[in-house]
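[step 3/7] inverse_fold.run input=structure_tokens len=377
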């Protein structure tokens, strides 16, 4: 779980980047900040030229690398890690599903007849870097809870990826989709019969990324699929090598750059008033209340029907704290918000709500864990 154990330092970098973005967005440099993000950058050659703003290159390009790492993490956890056995997966999978369903329902409750209903997936997400960083700061969480929260976040990420793929992609262009899937079919076939070097997979991933982009499917999905395709043959396999090489870059560079580019929220009196709009309340209640409620409800039902055994040193307060920390949506919530709301004013309200909800969840979760007197398992 290397990517998910980057710990406190990764969380600090994210926090500093987010704070820097908010400072720039509310300073005399706000115009310069916005102009830089919308500078057009061109890549390609001949008839294959791709021109996108810096913001789009970050969200569609750099984040594809982030999702590539996430895809490898998901595969390795299911093959060799905490999600390998069925018994080990029941509790975190059920908690993740509850932690996605209840926030989405709460959001829909506030936004059912509103034009902002398209943001229903925003409060479903968990920022594992922040959550695990604060869990490490708490210092007294049992190891079983750290494993539980990590596995929950892995399933949560997988759910968010599926949501992006099926609900936040554009109008389908079948030729690009066919080309991307054909590339992945070739990569899967080759990986089964012979060992090929990493550049072969990277080149295939770039082609599939371009195909998905042209198809109207969010290109970060190509990053996830590439991560799932990379062969894993024990601890010395290509997947482990690539993960070990890219995880620090993802945690210490890509995620902070994404935060710097996307967390720039313009804060004024009108913006703060929007926190009590259906959009703001849907996100706040979804992340701060829906996440812990969904997690606790899933754990309670499994315990009541004797589907799982709770470790002796784990208390209900630990599960409550984990559920609250899972309400730190930040990175994934911001990412989905950028897909859900093309209107800058609506997007700004969503971003502000995500930042406030994530800060509240982090503070409450830290206080909960600090208040529980237990020794490390």
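[step 3/7] decode complete -> sequence:
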């Amino acid at each position: 779980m290397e990517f998910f154990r980057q710990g406190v330092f990764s969380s600090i970098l994210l926090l500093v980047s987010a704070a820097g973005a908010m400072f720039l967005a509310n300073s005399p440099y706000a115009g310069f900040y916005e102009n830089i993000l919308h500078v057009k950058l061109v890549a390609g050659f001949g008839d294959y030229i791709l021109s996108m703003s810096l913001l789009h290159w970050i969200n569609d390009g750099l984040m594809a690398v982030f999702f590539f790492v996430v895809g490898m993490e998901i595969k390795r956890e299911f093959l060799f890690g905490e999600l390998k056995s069925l018994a080990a997966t029941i509790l975190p999978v059920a908690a993740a599903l509850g932690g996605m369903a209840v926030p989405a329902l709460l959001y829909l409750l506030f936004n059912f007849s509103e034009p902002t209903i398209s943001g229903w997936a925003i409060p479903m997400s968990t920022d594992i870097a922040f959550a695990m960083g604060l869990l490490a700061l708490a210092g007294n969480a049992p190891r079983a809870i750290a494993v539980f929260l990590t596995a929950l976040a892995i399933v949560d990420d997988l759910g968010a990826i599926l949501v992006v793929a099926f609900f936040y992609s554009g109008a389908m262009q079948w030729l690009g989709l066919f080309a991307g899937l054909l590339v992945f079919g070739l990569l899967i076939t080759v990986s089964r019969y012979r060992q090929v070097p990493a550049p072969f997979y990277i080149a295939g991933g770039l082609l599939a990324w371009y195909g998905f982009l042209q198809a109207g499917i969010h290109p970060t999905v190509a990053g996830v699929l590439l991560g799932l395709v990379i062969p894993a043959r024990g601890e010395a396999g290509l997947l482990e090598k690539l993960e070990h090489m890219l995880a620090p870059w993802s945690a210490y560079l890509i995620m902070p750059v994404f935060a710097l580019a996307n967390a720039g929220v313009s804060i004024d009196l009108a913006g703060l008033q929007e926190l009590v709009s259906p959009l703001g309340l849907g996100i706040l209640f979804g992340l701060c209340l829906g996440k812990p409620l969904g997690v606790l409800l899933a754990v309670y039902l499994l315990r009541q029907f004797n589907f799982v055994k709770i470790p002796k040193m784990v208390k209900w307060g630990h599960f409550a704290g984990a559920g609250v920390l899972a309400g730190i949506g930040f990175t994934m919530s911001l990412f989905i918000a950028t897909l859900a709301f093309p209107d800058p004013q609506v997007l700004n309200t969503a971003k502000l709500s995500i930042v406030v909800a994530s800060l509240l969840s982090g503070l409450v979760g830290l206080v909960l864990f600090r208040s529980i007197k237990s020794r490390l398992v």
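[step 4/7] annotate
The domain at 3-169+218-371 is CATH 1.20.1530.10 (Na+/H+ antiporter like fold).
Residues 1-5 have pLDDT under 50 and may be disordered.
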